[in-house]
């Protein structure tokens, strides 16, 4: 029986992880008294008694919790941004390569990736690694995301039912200082030499995220059409259970419904799409996931499954 402690259990990410953990027979969940959850002495006991700790906390609190761990057998999966570019931490996207998967399997410190960054890296990493896109490709990425990505504070703003709630009027751009906290991990884990230009937009829906990356054939190092890129990605991910590469030219007609950003919700899949115009040599890669699924809690549980030697899809399908 493995002992699991979720630090930040009552937050947005923690609650989803806790609900999913209730389906496992082979684990025991250690419960800290809600009133003592920020008491470091009390917390230290739970952190060191656990085989696996999930940190579902703000960055500073996550660092504080890691510093309290002195049990060499305690493995940590950190959902925060704090350790995602730290060289001693494995980056928790096993599908990127066999090396990524092995590192997660053997490491006792795993940084769970950000939701925007997961969608971005799954689209970009194979293309940069294969040299199709140079590491200096001038990358732009737009994301459209549900408001749960902003945690309890943003959820409260969106779910405030005052008569006039500006958040309900139209989607909102943010991160306009071009310094979003995911930029360092996007650059590092996509294998780029520079950060992408990143333009996130949040809409009035709870969850679901899509990253859209426009690409021009003429700027590629190895020139490929949209159709060839789709085929390349389909081959790259053919053995990955949770990355699905959809057929080229899937229906994108707005009057037939258009593209549904929520289409991967309540799953642990990342769905990749390539739309394009081969005559013009232009394409967009779209990478869609549930920001609380493959973008957070689902990914954290997938990493736990790998770290415990279980099938990675255990209780995720
Ligand atoms: N929401 C999402 O889609 C995603 C979030 N993440 C990351 O996961 C982490 C948690 O985010 P999220 O769940 O959205 O945040 P929330 O704000 O919803 O929840 C954070 C929780 O942590 C608790 N908390 C804060 N400080 C401490 C502390 N020192 N000790 C114990 N508990 C504490 C809070 O309790 P209280 O409210 O009582 O202070 C709250 O319950 C963040 O680092 C975020 O970046 C990652 C991927 C996706
Ligand atoms: C809508 C919204 O605010 N989203 C968050 C990202 C949430 C996420 O998944 O990333 P972290 O794990 O890094 O928090 C943002 O853009 O900062």
TrEMBL record:
It catalyses: N-acetyl-L-glutamate 5-semialdehyde + phosphate + NADP(+) = N-acetyl-L-glutamyl 5-phosphate + NADPH + H(+). One of its GO terms (molecular function) is NAD binding. Residues 3-104 form the Semialdehyde dehydrogenase NAD-binding domain. GO terms for biological process: L-arginine biosynthetic process. Signal peptide: none annotated. Pfam families: Semialdhyde_dh (PF01118), Semialdhyde_dhC_1 (PF22698). The active site is at residue 115. SUPFAM superfamilies: Glyceraldehyde-3-phosphate dehydrogenase-like, C-terminal domain, NAD(P)-binding Rossmann-fold domains. InterPro entries: AGPR, AGPR_dimerisation_dom, AGPR_type-2, NAD(P)-bd_dom_sf, Semialdehyde_DH_NAD-bd. SMART domains: Semialdhyde_dh. This is N-acetyl-gamma-glutamyl-phosphate reductase. It comes from Petrocella atlantisensis. The lineage of its organism: Bacteria, Bacillati, Bacillota, Clostridia, Lachnospirales.
